[in-house]
Amino acid sequence: MDRILAVLKKEFLQIRRDRMTLGIVLMIPLIQLLLFGYAIQTEVKHIPTTVFDQSLSAQSRDMLEAFTASGYFDVTMTADSYDVVTHNIDSGQAKVGIIFPPDFAHNLKRGTSAQVQVIVDASDSLLANQAIATANSIGLIKSQQILVQKMPSRQLPYDIRVRPWYNPDGITAYFMVPAILGIVVTMTMVILTSVAIVRERERGTLEQLLVTPIKPLELMIGKILPYIAMGYIQITVALLVGVLVFHVPIRGSLLQLYLLTLFFITASLGLGLMISNIAKNQMQAFQMSFFVMLPSILLSGFMFPRAAMPRFIYYLSDIIPLTYYLDIIRGIILKGIGFEYLIGQVTALLVFSIFFLVISTLKFKKKIV
Amino acid sequence: MEYAISTRELTRRFGDFTAVDSLTMDIIPGEICGFLGPNGAGKSTAIRMLCGILAPSSGMATVLGYDLLRETEKIKPKIAYMSQKFSLYDDLSVIQNLDFYAGIYSISARHRRKRMQEMLELAQLTGREKDLVANLSSGYKQRLALAAAIIADPELVFLDEPTSGVSPTSRRQFFEIIKTLAEKGTTVIVTTHFMDEAERCDRIAFINQGKLMALDAPDQLKQQFIAGCMVELTPPDPINYLDQLSSLPYVKETSLHGSQIHVLLAHEEYMSQLARDCGHTPEPIEPSLEDVFIHIARLRKEGGVS
After folding, report:
1. For residues A269 and A250, what is the distance between their CA atoms, to the nearest angstrom?
2. Which of A60, A143, B25, B273 could form a disulfide linkage to A100, CB 3.0–4.6 angstroms apart?
């Protein structure tokens, strides 16, 4: 107990002395949230659009009006030939081209299909998907209006009513801010602890510690505890930014959020500590941290829905702590659910924490070679 | 008699290289034992094994009565180790470093303040408690590193080249501290390159190429290995003089010490003959440990020591 306390105190003193690390701990959540919270918008609106209208009729203007009214398409330039449309899209000035053929109004009046060509720059898949889906639904809605007018009962056979729960307005920030919080915490925790042991090895102080009566587990616990405090400081900063800047509603219990976050912090710290026990020097520790961070960001469900992943990758994402924490933090903040729905995730994080700590302790031999 | 350290055939290999080769020695409690030998002779490796931070390849040892292999953790509270790296935390203050090691050795709150005060005095850092270690000069760092290592009042202290890279004044002060420790009954193992320090040890262990060549008191070593009369010559061109001297039948050994030549004569009555043969007057001298060292190193080359 004395020994854990001694290590704990020493780590706190060293962190306090190290202004750089303190700055990183405080500034990273602030900057990352502000940057990504604003930048990451999965919903693409106001797509620059070029229009080549050969029909120049009331009907084509009506259709174009439907496109622009959706908010997804901004007509930024008109074209008077296919070549100009091609040029506008090739040069990147426009992402979408809408072309009305000369017989557009004529076909519509005659009752045959009136074609509209929509060219989409699919080199950006997120933007392309949005443009394609919106263009299709605009077509369907406009068609329905005409069909309904022709139908005797004037009623559509199906009526699907969608209710988007938890985030009815589809605000990206609500979804992203909790996830970024998770990423920021795990990233800083892993990087900070990944150098914890290896730095002492490099400085030669580890050799000195090995000659003392300290036990590996005592050293590990003493090294981890101060960073748990760091983790909570980060979470608090991040939540404040989320609530004050992005107006993210916290629907569940804040107390539960803080309690369950503990398991995520310890899992992240354990992972960092394990890296520190494996790495030979600080450079290796940094490289290993980044090696494990990238899959966390890409596979945890932060960027891409896990449901869309191939089976193998899906199972792979099961061994990433962030995967479980995203369920917890999105669950409590957005869905307002509590511990009773999150037992599985909490258990998983607990298992990770114990696993990493045990491996670290076993890997840490009180020998120098 | 219970030895402080007792090793039997203790060996450590790194791949094909044998750093410590069948080390068998007994260390008497309360003595200062100097490990003397050239760089890479295996002194540090031997000390690291005895501290329990490097596993031996073969052989056995007891340290303070405990089995080195099976009871390593029982040994650790009773020993101290200080390496030439002065393993202190540069970003902590003097007192914070001492406090850390006091905690690591579980020194009770009641004794802690007194003990830390003693250690501050030992390091001559009283009044500079709040100074950052990074700002201390190497002499202070060296004494603070020792103070931190021995804060728990160990029975056995290992010092691995503690005086490398510090000023001669600091080296003398440091050896005074070591002497004081030994007077209180602490056993001290110290490696050094400096002959003047070696002379002050109770016993010297000569180690060369991983092997223990001799272990005895400095005076005993001189008597044992330097049989005959040691004289010093100061010829104008010493280097070219060596071969000529060596060919004389009554000269047992020659070695160059700066501008002087040390000559070992079979007996002191050859002194006048040497004066006649070479035209210079030889001065009889006390053989130094360095002479012993050179002698032993030569024996090794010529086929070993009995």
Report:
1. 26
2. A60
Can you tell me the ipTM of this complex?
A: 0.84
> What CATH number does residue A85 fall under?
3.40.1710.10
Decide if A132 is inside a domain. Answer: yes
Per CB-CB distance under 8 Å, the chain A contacts of B106 are 2-3, 213
Q: Residues A354, A320: one domain? A: yes
Q: A244 and A184, same structural domain?
A: yes
With contacts defined as CB-CB under 8 Å, which chain B residues touch A212? 76, 101, 104-105
Contacting residues of B for A17, CB less than 8 Å apart: 91-92
Task: Please tell me which residue of chain A has the smallest CA distance to B74.
Answer: A213
Q: Pull the structure tokens for residue A326.
A: 């995203």
- A112 with A222, same domain: the answer is no
Q: Domain span at residue A255?
A: 171-368
H or E segment at B229? strand B229-233
Is residue A97 within 8 Å of A89, Cβ to Cβ?
yes
What CA–CA distance (Å, rounded) separates A296 from A311?
A: 17
Please answer whether residues B297 and B208 qualify as being in contact, where contact means their C-beta atoms are separated by less than 8 angstroms: yes
Q: Could you list the pLDDT tens digit for every one of the 306 residues in chain B?
A: 689 999 999 999 999 999 999 999 999 999 999 999 888 889 999 999 999 999 999 999 999 999 999 999 999 999 999 988 888 999 999 999 999 999 999 999 889 999 999 999 999 999 999 999 999 998 999 999 999 999 999 999 999 988 888 888 989 999 999 999 999 999 999 998 888 888 899 999 999 889 998 899 988 888 888 878 888 888 888 888 888 888 888 888 888 888 888 888 888 888 888 888 877 788 888 888 888 888 887 776 665 444
The alpha helices in chain A, defined as continuous H runs, are: 2-17, 19-39, 58-69, 82-90, 104-110, 125-150, 172-194, 196-203, 205-211, 216-244, 254-278, 282-299, 311-316, 321-330, 339-363
pTM of the model: 0.81
Q: Chain B 92-111, CB below 8 Å of chain A: which residues?
A: 92, 96, 99-106
| Whether B150 contacts chain A with CB within 8 A | no
Domain count within chain A: 2
Residue A264 domain flag: yes
Q: What is the pLDDT of residue A326?
A: 94
Q: How many residues does chain B have?
A: 306
How many CA atoms within 13 Å lie on the side-chain side of A321? 31
Residues 257-286 of B with CB under 8 A from A: none
Residues A181 and A133 both lie in one domain: no
Is the CB of residue A12 less than 8 Å away from at least one CB of chain B? no
Residue B112 confidence (pLDDT): 93
- Please state the rounded mean pLDDT for residues A20-32: 86
Within a domain: residue A25?
no
